[in-house]
Amino acid sequence: MPSIYDHFKQHFVLNLQSELPIYRQIENYVTAQVRLGTFQENDKMISENELCDLLNISRTTVRQAMDALYKKGIVQKIRGKGTFIASEKIQRNINQVYNFSESMTALGHQPSSIVLSSEIITADEELAEILKLPEFNRKVFKLERIRKADDMPMIWETSYIPYYLCPSIETVDFEHRSLYNVLEKIFQLEVKTANETIEAIVLTEEMTRLLECPQMAGFFIHRTAYLDEHTVLEYTHSITRADKCTFQLNWQNGKQEEMGRVYRTDVE
């Protein structure tokens, strides 16, 4: 297979008459080739110097194109090695109640889980307060999983659900079932609203072991989901590594337009 440099040399045509800036032409071309599968994951990107010489353009213009591709997640920079085509990102809108399995399937990825624990516990005072449990009923279903996309660990997730809402749920095989699907189909419980907060952290040794990654920054995500204004269905906290997850917030005319989470499937 020819290198990206060879492909540029043979096929890329710079349109100097176009109103589209040069850096944007380069950005759009690389993006299109990745989408078409011509440029593939881990292919070495043409260097800034090579682009400057090949197209006879300034380094500033080339750097603009590279920066735009990096921000879009099309390329990734590896210190001491260069720039490479990155793996596809997994994105979801966090303005909607989030279902990992459905989201991954919709994006063409194969979701799976490793169940670390599936058990009935007695809530401590803190958890009981979060779930709004009465003194006389502190039983909680705890489900702890490693969530995967295409067999790659993405999230370490622990969920807590009041047991009185879903008796015998601990008998379900959650390695092959979606929690939200089970709650809706078996127990007729549907999330109406949810609150989510995101905290930046440094991954601990246990976190890196479970997520199969080196020590790095990460995100600690808390979510409380409600059946109605007064009834908590679920409290979940999850950990994801920072190089797999970014959060996007777009604004237009002072109004929130879109807020989303982007997961990366590339591992270096």
How many runs of DSSP E, i.e. beta strands?
A: 11
Tally of contiguous helical segments: 8
The SS-based structural class is alpha+beta
Instruction: Give the CA-CA distance, first to last residue.
Output: 22 Å
What can be said about the biggest beta sheet?
6 strands, antiparallel
CATH fold-type name of the largest domain: Chorismate lyase
- The CATH first-level class of the largest domain comes to Alpha Beta
Report the principal-axis shape. Answer: elongated
Strand content: 35-45%
Q: In oligomeric terms, what are we looking at? A: single chain
Helix percentage: 25-40%
Architecture per CATH nomenclature, i.e. the level-2 architecture of the largest domain: 3-Layer(aba) Sandwich
How many domains comprise the coordinates?
2
Quickly describe the structure.
InterPro entries: Bact_HTH_transcr_reg, Chorismate_lyase_/UTRA_dom_sf, Tscrpt_reg_HTH_GntR, UTRA, WH-like_DNA-bd_sf, WH_DNA-bd_sf. This protein has eight helices and eleven strands.
Structure description:
27% of the residues lie in helices and 35% in strands. By secondary structure, the protein is α+β, with helices and mostly antiparallel strands. It has two domains: 4-85, Winged helix-like DNA-binding domain superfamily/Winged helix DNA-binding domain (Arc Repressor Mutant, subunit A); 89-264, Chorismate lyase-like (Chorismate lyase), CATH 3.40.1410. The longest helix is centred in the first third of the chain and has 15 residues, at 22-36.
Question: What is the element layout, followed by pairings?
Answer:
Blueprint: H1 4-11, H2 22-36, H3 48-55, H4 59-71, E1 75-78, E2 82-85, E3 89-93, H5 100-106, E4 111-122, H6 125-131, E5 139-149, E6 152-162, H7 179-185, E7 193-202, H8 205-211, E8 217-226, E9 232-241, E10 245-252, E11 255-264
Antiparallel strand pairs: 1-2, 3-11, 4-5, 5-6, 6-9, 7-8, 8-9, 10-11
Helix pairs in contact: 2-4, 3-4
Organism: Caviibacterium pharyngocola
GO biological process, one term: negative regulation of DNA-templated transcription
Domain HTH gntR-type: 20-88
